[in-house]
Fold this protein.
Amino acid sequence: NGDNVNDYWQFVDFGFKNKIVPNAIEIFDRYGNLLTTIDPKSQGWNGTLKGQPAPSSDYWFRATASNGQKVNGHFSLKR
């Protein structure tokens, strides 16, 4: 929402049984459309699509490690 608090989303491994170190993180809309892929070493996704603010909604992610291990989940984007 531009208030400089939590303006980026990034995958954080909160102690899954088998710790995953992703090399790619994909973000999808609620229909399963791939919106963007972010680098896990980057600041994260700023909630924009093609330079415009994405709508407030639920979004899904898939974090994939180089060994093929995957973690799926979701988050809500609030404006």
About this structure: The radius of gyration is 13 Å. Residues 68 and 76 are 26 Å apart (CA to CA). The mean pLDDT is 88. The longest strand covers residues 57-65.
